[in-house]
Structures are given as C-alpha cells and as structure tokens.
Recover the amino acids of this structure.
C-alpha cells in the first residue's frame, strides 16, 4: 500500500498569491497571483482561484469550483475588478463565481456563513448577504442582491437585477423575474406562460429564524397577509399601511415592495442599470472606496 | 512553448501554435490541434480529433472532444475562431458526423453540446443550455438559462429560446420561442435591431409571422406559406423556406 505521504501532491500556487499558512490547499488546485486566502479556508481538490479574489477565513471550497474568472457580461472591459468572499461559507462541487464589472459596481460580494450547493453560479456584481442557503444548479445572473437568510431551492434561475428580500424562500425550479419580498414563499406549482410564479404564503422558517418579538411578528404576519393574499392594488394597500404608521420589519417590507413597484418589471435594481448601485461602496474594500471608479476611462 | 504550464499534460503529437497558453493540470490529447492565440485554462480536458480555431478561450474545467452517450471511439470536433467556452462546458465529439462550432460563439458555464451538433456563428448560449446530439443552431441565436434543444432539432437564425424551454420541434428563424412544447411567442425584434435590420424588414417579418402562425401558433397557415415563399423580401423568403423545409414540423400539432 502506498500512503498519501509518498505520492507527490501537485498544486500550483503563484508565488505572489497571499495564502495564509493555516489555509489548506488540496491537490490539483491552482491559485493565481492576485488571490488572497484567509486562515482555516480549505480548497479540497481541483479548485481554481484566479483574478483579484479575496477569500476570508474558515471557508470550505470543494472539487471543481472556479472562482474569480472574468464575467460573462459582454460589456466587461477587462479591468481588474474584484471578487470578495467572506468567512465560514461552504461551496459545493463545481460552484462558479465571477469578478465584478466596471459599470456594475466593480465588485462581486459574498457574505458570511452561506451555503452554496453544487453547480451554483454567482455572476458578476452580485451582492450575496449573510447566512443564505442556495440549492443545486442555481443560476444567479448579474447584479442580483440576496438579503440575509434567503433560501433558494434547486434549479432556480434568477434574472439579472432581481432583489430577494431577507428570509424569503424561492421554491425549486422557479424562474424568478421580479423582486421577492422578505419573509415570503415564492414559487409556482406548474410554471407556464399564463401562470407565472408568485408570492404564495409566508416563509415560516424565515420568520422563526429572524427571532422577532411576539408583537412585531404578529404585525408582520398581518401585513404579509394583507399585502399578498391577493396581490392586487399593492400601491394602495401599502399607502394605507404607511398612513396607519408602521415600524420595524413592517416598515422595511413596505419600503421593499414600494421600491419594486417603482422598478422595471418589478425589479427595483433595474433602475441602476449602467451605473454602480447605491450600496456599491459598502461592498468595496475600504482602501478602494475612493478613486477606483473615478480612475476608469 | 513557454506558455505551457509545467504541470499540464500535453501529448507529444498534439499540434500547438507557439503562443498557445495552457494552464496547470490540463490534458491535451494526441490528435488535438490548437491554433494561435488560444488560451486554455487549468484543469481542461481536450481529447479526440479536436481542432480549436484562432483566439479561442477555454476556461477552467471545460471538457472538449470527449466521446459521449455510450460511445467509446473518439470522433471529430471542429471549433472555429474567437469562441469563448466557459467553465464546466462539455462539448462531445461527433459519432459519424463531426461536431462543428463556428466562430464568435459564447458558450457559457455548464453548457452541453451533444455529439454531431452544428452551431453556426455569433451565438450566445446561457448557463446550463443543452444542445442535443445532431441539433443544428443558426447564426446569432440566443438561448437563455436551462434551455434545451432536443436531439436533431434546429433553431433558426436570430431566434431566441426562453429559459427552461425545450425545443422539441424546429424553432423558426427570427422567432422568440417559449415553453415545453415550444410555442412561437413573437418576433425577436431586439436581436434583429441589434444585428442591424432595418425597420421595413422587421415590419415585413412581423407581418409574415402573423400570416404564418396566425396567433394560434399551432398550425402553420399553408396558403400563406406558399405565398410567402415568393415574397419580395429576402428575409421573409428565408423564413418561409425554413418553415417549409423543416422536418420536425415547426410549431405544428
């Protein structure tokens, strides 16, 4: 028997890459020159990390993942844009994530504690917040924002510029073409042209995960039922709610839905097409917050 | 040959141009030909009787020229110039016919091109598109995520296939098709405008679609078809010819 210690372990780590000595880089991994990998992060096997990519600590990145390649967006001009991945994420097999584009905010950002199952694709300029759970074969198109605790089922395709609210759930094999409000369950039983996916009820696990105060939870449930039991005249219903005086989660929900209504085809972020979104600065690393975009031609 | 990673495995008989860049752990088989300006990422497998045209960019983890579907012998796979083949894309070699890909195509992450499929030029195929064995794809085709072309079917020039659709019969040129089975949902005007079609041509094509499919999309209007085959507009004639010659019954029950 030949033990693993006798086999020469092949890996390609560029000398310029800043890889923490406590990071574990498995066999057949290739790490490019502008990559930073934090302590406790594991690249299991056959992982390729290129581009200006920063990976935090405690992540597990499994076989076949490709992180930091150039966007599939044809408008990308080739500037050294960024991919920033936070801490304690778990990436399944064959996950792909791309760097940002110049016009879309310069950075693709993945938060902390997320779970990305096999073959998930995170496209350019996506902002994925903390503690999301994303199923197999999910395609996140460009410029998407996923808020904290979003749950996405298998085989979901999300169109560009969509926002998924916090603790919302998208059912399996749902084409998402508009914003998904927070704390809702969004899916279609039998997708066809005449019956597009829609908000169908409250995401109970999401409400439980948010740990709201009992009174606030009651208010939130009432608002969700009022708005989405019958999705007509949303604008009027929201105005009524706001006039009654809302606060906390309900106020955020009202603001979210109102923004979606202002957007194009129910997508608020579509209004930022062609220019960096308002929250772009929050996701850029501090040293780049001034001067990067101004320096672009 | 300075651009080939020392960790790449390149067969001695493979014919590589001088400036080809090859990443670590990539396997290049003995009957492979790679033209000038190609960039091949790490962990790529290129095998079979495969040729890559100039300035083709293959991203990490792609697999090109592998025999598919129970086939054991390696076949032929010809890929034209300036294509971009993204991560995890798989292109099978042909069984009897060869797999052919034209120029300037963008084949995105996780796409599968079946054996013997023919793709023309300037196509964009979104993530996880499946192009079945023997399928024929025209110029300037756009396919959205998770769309599939069933074996042997064709997608006409300038057509758009909506996400999650399965093209189980031929999709006419210039059309937008959606659903499973597919239905013609209209003319792909956005793409036609981007490709420089004039307003007159677009109006003529729209009128032809109204005549041919008559809003119901189920049965092609035979009389209109005969008339449109002699239409003065070349694009309309091309549409009518494609519908008439389609073996897979374009949108006909």
């Amino acid at each position: 028997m030949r033990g693993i210690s006798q086999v020469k372990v092949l890996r390609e780590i560029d000398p310029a890459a800043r890889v923490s000595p406590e990071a574990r880089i498995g066999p057949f991994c290739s790490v490019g020159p502008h990559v930073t990998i934090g302590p406790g992060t594991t690249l299991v096997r056959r992982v390729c990390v290129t581009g200006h990519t920063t990976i935090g600590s405690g992540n597990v990145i499994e076989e076949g993942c490709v992180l930091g390649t150039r966007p599939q967006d044809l408008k990308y001009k080739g500037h050294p844009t960024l991919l920033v991945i936070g801490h304690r994420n778990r990436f399944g097999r064959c996950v792909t994530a791309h760097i940002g584009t110049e016009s879309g905010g310069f950075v693709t950002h993945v938060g902390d504690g997320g779970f990305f199952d096999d073959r998930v694709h995170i496209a350019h300029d996506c902002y994925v917040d903390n503690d999301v759970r994303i199923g197999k074969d999910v395609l996140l198109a460009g410029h998407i924002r996923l808020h904290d605790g979003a749950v996405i089922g298998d085989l979901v395709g999300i169109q560009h510029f969509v926002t998924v609210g916090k603790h919302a759930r998208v059912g399996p094999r749902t084409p998402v073409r508009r914003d998904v409000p927070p704390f809702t369950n969004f899916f279609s039983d039998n997708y066809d042209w005449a019956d597009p996916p829609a908000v169908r009820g409250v995401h109970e696990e999401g409400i439980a995960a948010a740990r709201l105060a009992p009174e606030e939870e009651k208010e939130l449930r009432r608002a969700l039922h009022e708005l989405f039991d019958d999705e007509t005249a949303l604008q009027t219903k929201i105005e009524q709610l706001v006039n009654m005086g809302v606060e906390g989660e309900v106020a955020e929900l009202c603001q979210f839905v109102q923004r979606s209504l202002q957007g194009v085809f129910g997508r608020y972020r579509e209004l930022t097409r062609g220019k960096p979104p308002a929250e772009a600065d929050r996701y850029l690393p501090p040293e780049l917050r001034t001067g990067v975009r101004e320096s672009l031609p | 040959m300075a651009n080939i990673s020392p960790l790449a495995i390149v067969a001695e008989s493979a014919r590589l141009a001088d400036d080809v860049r090859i990443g670590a752990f990539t396997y290049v088989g003995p009957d492979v030909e790679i033209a000038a300006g190609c960039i091949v990422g790490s962990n790529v497998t290129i095998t079979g009787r495969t040729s890559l045209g100039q300035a083709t960019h293959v991203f990490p983890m792609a697999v090109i020229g592998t025999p598919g579907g129970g086939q054991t012998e390696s076949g032929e796979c010809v890929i034209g110039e300036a294509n971009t083949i993204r991560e995890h894309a798989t292109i099978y070699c042909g069984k009897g016919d060869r797999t052919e890909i034209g120029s300037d195509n963008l084949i995105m992450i996780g796409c599968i091109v079946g054996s013997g499929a023919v793709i023309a030029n300037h196509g964009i195929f979104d993530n996880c598109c499946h192009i079945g064995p023997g399928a024929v794809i025209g110029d300037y085709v756009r396919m959205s995520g998770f769309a599939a072309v069933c074996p042997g079917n064709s997608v006409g020039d300038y057509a758009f296939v909506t996400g999650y659709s399965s093209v189980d019969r031929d999709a006419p040129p210039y059309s937008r098709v959606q659903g499973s089975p597919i239905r013609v949902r209209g003319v792909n005007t956005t793409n036609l405008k981007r490709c420089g079609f004039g307003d007159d041509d677009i109006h003529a094509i729209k009128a032809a679609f109204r005549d041919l499919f008559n809003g119901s999309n189920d049965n092609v209007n035979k009389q209109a078809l005969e008339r449109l085959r002699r239409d003065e507009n070349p694009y309309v004639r091309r549409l009518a010819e494609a519908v008439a010659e389609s073996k897979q019954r374009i949108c006909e029950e």
User: Anything to note?
Assistant: The first helix of chain A runs from residue 204 to 210.
